[in-house]
């Protein structure tokens, strides 16, 4: 029996989902191995745009869909227990940034495996991560600004330039680079009036100010088992034009042995500092002249097809690995670069030039003739790029190569042949 055949006969509850094919296919791969999957959602419109029933969406093809208040851990627990209070599932997990904390709390209440509630909370609320790293050289200067009276001291402490962001958001929503005092004040005014998350959860309007550090930003892909972290490798990151949005990635990033050792040590200390027990982590790190600095920890698998790159390069499937751990199966992923079907992989994110209604796309056939895969998560008629965050993407160009650099070059050449057309909508 292979490790993934241990899914047979087990039942897993998935609380909401991130968007994009990798997360949908991860669910269905587990089902292919015999796992029964229940999906808990609060509303279907997040996935369908309100125009189609969930039954026509890839997530609708799970074994059971439960409509639950997924912002309330008690409601999740109630949906997953029988009349005697015993769990109806063998595991519960979420890769949705807005639901990992609820899910961890529900898992602990049900006596099921989890990353650890305190660990997930510290990762999701970035000021708690900063506090946990107090005294560690991988930390940066920071202040949480809870009211206007704290702003001046916070700016003086952190220094300029600085990064302003909501402390408990995701997908780069609300992240602002502020070069001047005026920009920092404007960022505070803009962000402090946001009193709901993108998924409708209440927020107090606090703003996190962090030191801006110059360097090369990468992400580190890992899986923790019983508090011990296994590292798959580092992923490159390229930003879109003059924004903070991620425009391209390649894996595995070639790093000098000493640099990679320092990054691994930095991430390992960070996960230990928040007592991360198990599961995937997508940790963003800035490589500086003075060593690595932690940008943030995401207690989930990465988006933008990064987990697909890990699968193809390392020969292990992080989506399946994470689900086995959530089910309580003893499993330690042993995949490393060189054990997969490709030496390197890359993805280029497709953004429209302007927001509006997606009308049509040119150049797909020409791009695919270069030996890449193009995946779209929007279709004509959808409104696209309505916000300046990672949700602005329309799709991905994915490529293999002998190295990560070769794959990235192929993906970029293919993406250059694609043009996304939009039509402005009425204000």
Distance between the termini: 58 Å
Kindly report the average pLDDT value.
94
Largest sheet: 5 strands, antiparallel
Using the alpha-carbon principal axes, give the shape.
Answer: globular
- Considering DSSP H and I runs of 4 or more, what fraction of the residues is helical? 25-40%
Lateral arrangement of strands in the main beta sheet: 11-12-15-19-17
Quantity of strands, as a count: 20
* Rg calc: 21 Å
Summing up helix and strand content along with how strands pair, one would put the structural category as alpha+beta
- How many helix segments? 13
User: Strand share of the residues?
Assistant: 25-35%
- Report the uncertain regions: none
Notes on the protein architecture:
By secondary structure, this protein is an alpha+beta fold. Helices cover 28% and strands 26% of the residues. The protein is built from 13 helices and 20 strands. The strands form 5 sheets. A 5-stranded antiparallel beta sheet has the order 11-12-15-19-17, sandwiched between helices. The longest helix has 17 residues, at 257-273. The chain is globular, with a radius of gyration of 21 Å. The relative contact order is 0.12.
């Amino acid at each position: 029996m292979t490790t993934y055949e241990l899914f047979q006969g087990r039942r897993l509850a998935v609380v909401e989902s991130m968007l994009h094919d990798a997360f949908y296919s991860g669910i269905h791969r587990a089902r292919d191995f015999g796992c029964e999957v229940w999906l808990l959602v609060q509303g279907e419109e997040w996935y369908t745009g309100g125009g189609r029933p969930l039954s026509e969406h890839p997530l609708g093809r799970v074994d059971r869909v439960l409509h639950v208040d997924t912002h309330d851990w008690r409601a999740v627990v109630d949906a997953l227990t029988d009349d005697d209070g015993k769990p109806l599932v063998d595991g519960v997990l979420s890769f949705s940034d807005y639901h990992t904390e609820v899910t961890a709390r529900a898992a602990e209440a049900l006596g099921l495996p989890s990353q650890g509630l305190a660990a997930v909370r510290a990762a999701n609320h970035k000021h708690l991560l900063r506090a946990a790293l107090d005294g560690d050289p991988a930390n940066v200067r920071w202040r949480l600004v809870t009211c206007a009276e704290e702003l001046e001291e916070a700016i003086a402490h952190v220094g300029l330039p600085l990064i302003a962001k909501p402390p408990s958001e995701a997908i780069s929503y609300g992240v602002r680079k502020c070069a001047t005092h005026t920009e920092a004040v404007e960022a505070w005014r803009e962000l402090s009036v946001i009193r709901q998350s993108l998924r409708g959860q209440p927020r107090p309007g606090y703003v996190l100010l962090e030191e801006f550090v110059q360097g090369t930003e990468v992400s580190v892909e890992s899986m923790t088992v019983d508090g011990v972290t296994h590292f798959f490798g580092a992923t490159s990151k390229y930003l879109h034009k003059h924004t903070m949005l991620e425009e391209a990635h390649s894996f595995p990033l070639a790093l000098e042995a000493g640099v990679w050792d320092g990054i691994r040590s930095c991430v390992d200390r960070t996960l230990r500092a928040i007592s991360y027990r198990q599961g995937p982590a997508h940790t963003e790190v800035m490589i500086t002249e003075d060593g690595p600095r932690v940008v943030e920890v995401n207690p989930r698998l990465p988006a933008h097809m990064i987990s697909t790159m890990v699968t193809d390069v390392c020969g292990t499937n992080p989506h399946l690995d994470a689900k086995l751990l959530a089910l309580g199966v003893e499993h330690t992923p042993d995949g490393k670069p060189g054990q997969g079907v490709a030496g390197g992989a890359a993805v280029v994110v497709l953004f429209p030039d302007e927001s509006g209604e997606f009308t049509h796309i040119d150049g797909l056939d020409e791009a695919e003739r270069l030996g890449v895969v193009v995946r779209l998560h929007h279709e004509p008629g959808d409104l696209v790029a309505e916000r300046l965050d990672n949700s602005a993407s329309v799709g991905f160009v994915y490529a293999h190569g002998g190295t990560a650099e070769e794959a990235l070059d192929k993906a970029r050449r293919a993406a250059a042949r694609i043009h996304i057309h939009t039509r402005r909508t009425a204000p």
